Amino acid sequence: MKKIIVLGSGLVGKAMAIDLAKQFDVTATDINDQALAEVDSHGIKTRYLDFANLQALQTAIEPFDLVIGAVPGFMGLQTARTVIEAKKNMVDISFFPEDPFQLDALAKKNDVTVITDCGVAPGMGNIILGYHNKRMKIDTYECLVGGLPVLREWPYEYKAVFSPIDVIEEYIRPARYVQNGALVVREALSDPELIHFEKAGTLESWNSDGLRSLIKTMPNIPNMIEKTLRYPGCIEYLRVLRETGFFSYEELEVKGMKVRPIDITAKLLFPKWKLKPGEEEFTVMRIRMVGEENGQPASYEYNLYDRTDQATGTLSMARTTGYTCTAAAHLVLNGQYSRKGISPPEFLGEDEANFLFVMQYLKARGVTYHVKRS
Fold first, then answer.
1. Whole-model pTM above 0.90?
2. Cα distances (angstroms) measured from residue 232 to each of 110, 235, 374
């Protein structure tokens, strides 16, 4: 039986470990004892591991056939580099801000396959676009996506599945999109728009930096944009916090001590953003592609609305993100995807067999994308 090590046992890491343990020998790791105890309660092997200790990390991953990366974004690049240096294949959802292609030459030199950004968005959106880009001439790609609590609770009407600092990055990192073949850079939270969804109701969209690798790998598509979805009204208070400096990484001196405002903000927001036991959330995503197929105008729309699995308590964002990653893990371990170097998910989606496998894998777990063609 092939062996997998999962780096990170948070809400998404836990869901991935449980899913993969159905067919593989899985070990989950983390620095948080409580997170490990929750995974251990499912009969999965666990191990305490400080990911910042690169020597310990390299030693820990040595016996395994595949590494799953689910560490906070600020640790993602150095973790991926360490895995590549250890000559191990990897599927990663850390969504680190740096360009993953800076590791491409090293990955090819060490003959390893590394699939980055393999979540829901980025992730599944890339896989879908990669599939259709090979089969039609796309003029416009738009992805709207968000994860929200079912219960809108004051003051934030938001709950986070990921690290608070990773969420805050969406509010401060400049948003890049492509318009008429040119790269446009706008501040995050810009160009708000109210959009109605059948099951989720009316949500507010705004520019976020979600295209990532697509800007480099899809130069043939003249119009591409991704926008984040939240409940209406969130942009104003996020802008107030941002402009006041609460999201700043620059140290301030407070009573003789140096502190980063973002660390204090994340510490304060974490209890406000934490889902309560039994509290449900949902993921909503709409992807639209417009272009030409077989010489005729064509458009595709993919819609996802997914809620917390009540039977298991598995959160929707953990399911939609984690199961995309575990589907890719199966493809790598079974030798169905073996491209060497850094592979953003759009590379994975180019092959029809891989695309259909991921779609069916998700559907079998209750994550269903509804497709409309016109």
1. yes
2. 48, 8, 30
